[in-house]
Amino acid sequence: MDANADNYLARIAGAIAEPARARMLCCLLDGHARTSTELSVVAEVSPSTASAHLARLKDEHLVIQLAQGKHRYYQLAGHDVATALEALLVVAGLPRPEFKPNTPNRLRHARTCYDHMAGAVAVSLHDHFAAQGWLAPEGERGDYALSGEGEDHFAELGLDVGAMRKQRRRFACPCLDWSERRPHLGGALGAALLQLALKRGWVEQDLDSRALSVPPKGERQMLKAFGISPP
């Protein structure tokens, strides 16, 4: 290992070793993004001190910042960071922290986010699409490209992918879910999927809120349509 590698390792170790920063990193290990204010509570420091710590972690490429509207969230910079932290927790003999959302259950399960679906159901669909290799990051903004297999599958469901790509908006992109703090699918593709789910009765729109009802029969049909085994 050369001197530059030694120095970089020392910087990374120093960034992790500070107790407040270590608490922030461990908090983010569950894969959910959090605001600097939330992380300041976890780290037991003031918001201004938390911002300084997060700037250090960002400079060392341990966390990334996500913008969602007027809000700013932080999450781990990738699987390699999570793996390293997990290894350190094993050595320390500590359990992984658990994410505890405070969103009302009905809204947390399924709701609309502008013109696409959000909530636990939407996050699960997003994760399934990614696991199947249908979605892949593309470009500096983190948009998604659709694989040939994914395009074929959505076309079989009656979605006109070509027409979506011609719209004057992002085709497909991750949208950070405010209750799950993980991404669901946004963009033209996400909007088309919501309309498909409404049309087929997989979900039902509430008249006086953003909540979406997911009837048992609709959920079974939706899971089957995307090749997902029921829980």
Keyword list:
two-stranded antiparallel ribbon; alpha+beta; elongated; 231 residues; 16% strand; 10 strands
Could you explain the architecture of this structure?
- It is a single chain.
- The protein has 231 residues and is α+β, with helices and mostly antiparallel strands.
- Helix content is 49%, strand content 16%.
- It has two domains: 90 residues, Orthogonal Bundle (Arc Repressor Mutant, subunit A); 121 residues, no CATH class.
- It has a two-stranded antiparallel sheet. A two-stranded antiparallel sheet has the order 3-4.
- The model has no long low-confidence stretch (mean pLDDT 87).
Would you spell out the secondary-structure blueprint of this structure?
Layout: H1 3-17, H2 19-27, H3 36-43, H4 47-59, E1 63-68, E2 71-76, H5 79-92, H6 105-109, E3 111-113, E4 116-118, H7 120-131, E5 135-138, E6 143-146, H8 148-156, H9 161-165, E7 173-176, E8 183-186, H10 187-199, E9 204-205, E10 212-213, H11 216-225
Antiparallel strand pairs: 1-2, 3-4, 5-6, 7-8, 9-10
Helix pairs in contact: 2-3, 3-4
Number of helices: 11
Q: Domains counted in the coordinates: how many?
A: 2
Q: Name the beta content range.
A: 15-25%
Low-confidence stretches: none
* Helix residue percentage: 40-55%
Q: How would you state the average pLDDT, rounded?
A: 87
Let me know the number of strands: 10
**What is the string of helix and strand elements?**
HHHHEEHHEEHEEHHEEHEEH
Shape: elongated
C-alpha-based Rg, rounded: 20 Å
Question: Mind describing the biggest β-sheet?
Answer: 2 strands, antiparallel
Strand order of the largest sheet: 1-2
- The end-to-end distance, rounded to whole angstroms, is 47 Å
Overall SS class: alpha+beta
